[in-house]
Write a structure and sequence with these properties.
The chain is mostly helical and 128 residues long. 66% of the residues lie in helices and 0% in strands.
Length: 128
């Protein structure tokens, strides 16, 4: 196991994690339906996102919630996403950045789930 210290580590994390997502019984249909043949572009965006979050290198610009706002997902999807993410981190990485990655994934899943739930119950879109 190694620490998350550079872009190579971010790419390994993202590629391994999304490899699991793409083949998961619960998540594959959601992701593959939305992303379709655009996986290389999606992975590049995820590299930049996690590089910005974990390495403090400003390479991602945008609002990560918007693409997820209308997905057909429920709590079980977020739970499985987190399970796969933490499993990936725990299998391949150790140290402070690994702990931070799991914490940030948990907070992001929590926020996305709350915002999606809110938007389904209220006609006014949430603040992005």
């Amino acid at each position: 196991m190694r620490t998350i210290k550079d872009t190579t580590d971010i790419k390994h994390l993202v590629d391994t994690f999304y490899g699991k997502v793409r083949n998961d019984d619960l998540l594959a249909d959601v992701f593959n339906t939305v992303i379709q043949d655009n996986w290389p572009e999606h992975l590049e965006k995820m590299y930049r996102f996690w590089q910005t979050i974990l390495l403090k290198e400003r390479t991602y610009y945008g609002s990560p919630f918007l693409p997820h706002a209308r997905l057909p997902v429920e709590k079980k999807h977020f739970d499985r996403w987190l399970e796969l993410f933490c499993e990936t981190v725990n299998t391949h990485f150790k140290g402070e950045k690994a702990r931070e990655a799991k914490w940030r994934a948990y907070k992001m899943a929590e926020m996305f789930q709350l915002k999606i739930e809110y938007s389904r119950k209220n006609p006014i879109p949430p603040l992005l």
